[in-house]
Write a structure and sequence with these properties.
Number of helices: 32
Low-confidence stretches: 1-51, 102-122, 1002-1006
Number of strands: 28
Bound molecules: thiamine diphosphate, magnesium ion
Largest sheet: 8 strands, mixed
Helix content: 25-40%
Strand content: 5-15%
Length: 1006
């Protein structure tokens, strides 16, 4: 048996038993550095106590360890005294005997000057070790806390970004040397550099004075690097060498001139808007003009690394500038947005100019490669767009087979206050490394103007920086003074390289200021008087940078002025052109255009018919077979699951489906027809109610799974089913973004219980409900929301149908004027979303298939059942799913009432599972001939035409609505006016449940 010990064990003399043969030096090094655990095979028996060799204590062991490795590689690289010590120790010298006083200095082993500098004439090894340790700690202190003293704030009011005194272990003045037990006399001593720093460049030793100076250069100038929390050595080393190597911040003349030209565009764009529309809100970028070169640098570098498509999300600040100077939206199109008299050409309510999206493919001038840039439209709700951008990015990666994120990537921009305050930022970060949600690294750029509207950071967040949230995923954070454009460019280059190398998130924190108020109309002196006094004195960054370049001869003043005049002229000409625009086209602001083959050339649907959603007997049988089998060899499933699959097989034999099988039929057939399906949400793979089982787990082999749905047909589309993180806001936003990328995918998000959807309310209210009206963009996302009062308490009962219904755009008082043939499809086309509560598996099957087979896309909200999943009556016959059948918006009563409709006293309208309770009760009371029950399966758009057929069929019946929810909840308020409209208000509609504060419940809470 071999015992593996760490080098520290060896050096701090913990007794151990030696077995095995010594490694050659390079092997030992490899074993130590490359392995996950720094272990090596012991080389000698050594049981000395610390007291025998007191310099080998716990604190010095790291340092000695480093020295030991260096010695292994090259015995001459360490001081002679250490060389002798390691030789003796390796040769088996007893405790206390390995150490010998170093030989007299001046020999060939070391240069005299160096040697004297290191140990003095009378060397004191203990002091030597301590000093070297001190230097190592010093290096580490700069790496960990150098950012706290970096010159990050252009205003010099640093307290706003990072309150608190500078750390005491950073050498801001010589008196701090004392902290390390060093003094000024040590400044010229030469120290060996630890392998965890790159400040030496090609040197392995440096005088202390130089070490401090280089650390100051690396960590305490315009860039503050936060990375030492990252738990991966290779990544830390990568960052260290990016920021520590001497001479890193060198730019060519051409790079400097390009940077200046970009600064000119960024600055003069805002100035132009200010001149022309001085009283318009535009949320200008003034104070953070270097955002534009920052983004362009990231894009250039990423394009160089092979990225072809970049999806961006950003808030209000600087958005128009980004559209103009990064995405390159035509300037006249931007300027005409300021003309309040222009009428919108497209249907919908539109949105303010600083929310609109954009999509543009162009040649990247630096790399000469094609690149597609899109900026997603977003609501005012800060950060809400973050997960949506990620979902869209994931979808684009998925559809182009970019499994590593080499071709498609995302950039997210943030404000400092929102980044720190909004929880969805955290939820989005937590998706970043999950297999079904990762986009393989996002570059985050924070416009950190040290204020949020009128609120100072000290009262807006508890963390030092607004970016601390990124630490949860080990993303490095590069703080940079935005008034130093070259430093900005440098960190952006590093950020893009980081993403290309490690495929992980990274944050660039542009520390800047906001020259104006929150918007151009706001007075900031009311609330931040001192800050704004300072801002008024502040020279613009363009002017500062231009003066620097002129002074160093990189450009002449004349060239600079010509650059300005050239861009001003471009703006003026575009402004003149914009006056010719007669009409606003919201369609020009689409962020995710769909393939033209989905629409006609004019953007209209190809047809206005919904084909049959049924399947052949053979297809049903085949999918049913897959659903009830394990389509791979030697795969052991759980015994309980075997029973479930047997049950499914029996149902298929009897030509019936339960809920899960109905869903299987819909998914399986769409996949076979080439539609990608993605089902995501908490525990969706098995299903919260253990009914679905789309992923089978081998009971004997860890992580071995089987997804039968991917075994339907050879050329089928892929099925993605993924348990999500425990997030609603983030995950629903993500799926919405995924659904945006293509019309040919069925993307479903399932809430664990419908009740929990409200933590994603913003995505529902701001994107799903009004998305098409605001941004002329269709989306076919499906929400599955388990709903029903089944004794599980007030938070496991209601998906709050009343809220979804209240947000429908349909007029309850107007009977739609569509022809009978087109009624259903026209209604669907006009609505903002579709809401259904199916009572049968067949109808659920049809509505899922209709979602793809209809010629346009609308969000679909499905209130899904819990008790019906296993209800013996809630089964559908294959006959209801065969070719020619379709979704039934209303299921009329087909019982005895049909024979004598005149004798029917009451017609009860209902929806969902309550139907089964009603029929049972009707039977118990012997009312099968006098009470008709009609199920409204599609609540929105309301099936006025079919309801009318029912009310006409039973002319003598009174109208009753029945639901299990209390009167102020559920469907009543929505259905009642529509029923009244249908009967032209000739008959009243009754419902007798009282209102209630919480969702109603039955039985005991569990
Ligand atoms: C979710 C949300 N809450 C509140 C607001 C109102 N609001 C708009 S901008 C703003 C301040 C944002 O500050 P910051 O994120 O630092 O961006 P800045 O305006 O400074 O660029 C607030 C509170 C909002 N738009 N969204
Ligand atoms: Mg801010």
């Amino acid at each position: 048996m071999q015992i593996f010990i760490t080098i520290s064990d060896f050096l701090i003399n913990r007794p151990f038993r030696l077995i095995g043969r010594p490694l050659v030096q390079s092997q030992a090094r490899l074993a130590a550095v490359g392995g996950a655990l720094r272990t090596f095979q012991p080389m000698r028996s050594y049981t000395a106590s610390v007291s025998a060799e007191p310099f080998l204590n716990g604190t010095s062991s790291n340092y000695v360890e480093e020295m030991y490795y260096a010695w292994l590689e090259n015995p001459r690289s360490v001081h002679k005294s250490w060389d002798i010590f390691f030789r003796n120790a390796n040769a088996g010298a007893p405790p206390g005997a390995a150490y010998q006083s170093p030989p007299p200095l001046g020999g060939a082993a070391l240069g005299l000057a160096n040697a004297q500098a290191m140990v003095g004439v009378q060397p004191n090894v203990e002091k030597l070790v301590e000093d070297h340790l001190a230097v190592q700690s010093l290096v580490r202190a700069y790496q960990i806390r150098g950012h706290h003293v970096a010159q990050l704030d252009p205003l010099g009011i640093m307290a706003a970004i990072d309150p608190g005194p500078p750390p005491s272990d950073i050498i801001t003045s010589n008196d701090k040397l004392e902290f390390y037990g060093l003094d000024e006399s040590d400044l010229d001593k030469v120290f060996r550099l630890p392998t965890t720093t790159f400040i030496g460049g090609s040197e392995s030793t440096l005088p202390l004075r130089e070490i401090i100076q280089r650390l100051e250069m690396a960590y305490c100038q315009s860039i503050g690097v936060e990375f030492m929390f990252i738990n991966d050595l290779e990544q830390c080393q990568w960052i260290r060498q990016k920021f520590e190597r001497p001479g890193i911040m060198q730019f060519t003349l051409e790079e400097k001139r390009t940077l200046l030209a970009r600064m000119v565009r960024s600055t003069r764009f805002e100035e132009f808007l200010q001149r022309k529309w001085s009283s318009e809100k535009r949320f200008g970028l003034e104070g953070c003009e270097s955002l534009i070169p920052a983004l362009k640098t990231i894009i250039d570098k990423s394009s160089m690394n092979g990225v072809e498509s970049i999806i961006m999300g950003m808030p209000h600040r600087g958005r128009l500038n980004v559209l103009a100077n990064v995405i390159r939206k035509e300037l006249d199109q931007i300027f005409c947005q300021f003309d309040s008299k222009l009428e919108a050409a497209d249907e919908g309510s539109g949105d303010v100019k600083y929310h609109l999206g954009m999509w543009h493919r162009r040649i990247n001038r630096v790399t000469d490669r094609n690149i597609t840039l899109s900026l997603m439209a977003n609501p005012s709700h800060l950060e809400a767009v973050d997960p949506v951008v990620q979902g869209k990015t994931k979808a684009e990666q998925f559809y182009c087979g970019d499994t590593e994120g080499n071709r498609v990537m995302s950039i997210l921009l943030h404000g400092d206050a929102a980044f720190a305050g909004q929880g969805v930022v955290y939820e989005t970060f937590h998706l970043s490394d999950l297999p079904s949600y990762t986009t393989h690294g996002t570059i985050h750029v924070v416009v950190n103007n040290q204020i949020g509207f009128t609120t100072d950071p000290r009262v807006a967040r508890s963390s030092s920086y607004p970016t601390d949230v990124a630490k949860v995923v080990n993303a490095p954070i590069f703080h940079v003074n935005a008034d130093d454009p070259e430093a900005v460019m440098y960190v952006c280059n590093v950020a893009a390289e980081w993403r290309a190398t490690f495929h992980k998130d990274v944050v660039v924190d542009l520390v800047c200021y906001r020259r104006n108020g929150h918007n151009e109309m706001d007075e900031p002196m009311f609330t931040q008087p001192l800050m704004y006094k300072q801002i008024k004195k502040q020279k613009g960054v363009l002017q500062k940078y231009a003066e620097k370049l002129i002074a160093e001869g990189a450009v002449t003043r004349q060239e600079y002025e010509e650059e300005i005049a050239k861009y001003d002229k471009i703006c003026e000409e575009a402004h003149t052109r914009s006056k010719d625009e007669k009409i606003l086209h919201i369609k020009h602001w689409l962020d995710s255009p769909w393939p033209v083959c989905f629409f006609k050339m004019d953007g209209q649907p190809k047809s206005m018919t919904s084909p049959s959603t049924g399947l052949t007997e053979e297809e049903l049988g085949h999918i049913g077979h897959i659903a009830s089998s394990v389509p791979v060899e030697d795969f052991t499933i759980h015994g309980g699951l075997s029973r479930i699959l047997k049950g499914r097989a029996a149902m298929v034999g009897q030509r019936v489906c339960d809920w899960a099988l109905g869903e299987y039929m819909a998914f399986g057939s769409l996949l076979k027809e080439g539609t990608h399906i993605r089902l995501s949400g908490q525990d969706v793979e098995r299903g919260t109610f253990s009914h679905r089982h789309h992923v089978l787990h081998d009971q004997n082999v860890d992580k071995r799974i089987c997804i039968p749905m991917n075994h339907i047909a050879p050329n089928q589309a892929p099925y993605t089913v993924c348990n999500s993180s425990l997030s609603e806001y983030g995950v629903l936003g993500f799926e919405l973004g995924f659904a945006m990328a293509s019309p040919n995918a069925l993307v479903l998000w399932e809430a664990q219980f419908g009740d929990f959807h409200n933590t994603a309310q913003c995505i529902i209210d701001q994107f799903i409900c009004p998305g098409q009206a605001k941004w002329v963009r269709q989306n076919g996302i499906v929400l599955l929301l388990p709903h029903g009062m089944e004794g599980m308490g007030p938070e496991h009962s209601s998906a709050r149908p009343e809220r979804f219904l209240q947000m429908c755009n349909e007029d309850p008082d107007a009977y739609p004027k569509f022809s009978a043939e087109e009624f259903a499809v026209r209604q669907l086309y006009d609505c903002n979303w579709i809401i259904v509560n199916c009572s049968t598996p067949a109808n659920y099957f049809h509505v899922l298939r209709r979602q793809i087979l209809q010629p346009f896309r609308k969000p679909l909200i499905v209130f899904t059942p819990k008790s019906l999943l296993r209800h013996p009556d809630a089964k559908s016959n294959f006959d209801d799913m065969l070719t020619g059948t379709h979704f039934q918006r209303l299921i009329p009563d087909s019982g005895p009432v049909c024979e004598k409709p005149d004798g029917v006293k009451r017609i009860v309208f209902c929806t969902g599972k309550v139907y089964y309770e009603l029929t049972r009760e009707r039977k118990n009371r012997g009312m099968d001939n006098t009470v008709a029950i009609a199920r409204i399966e599609q609540l929105s758009p309301f099936p006025f035409d079919q309801v009318k057929v029912e009310t006409d069929r039973y002319p003598n019946a009174d109208l009753v609505w029945c639901q299990e929810e209390h009167k102020n909840q559920g469907y009543y308020d929505y259905v009642k006016p529509r029923l009244r409209t249908t009967v032209d208000r000739t008959r009243p509609v009754r419902y007798d449940q009282p209102p209630s504060l919480t969702p109603a419940h039955r039985g005991r809470y569990q």
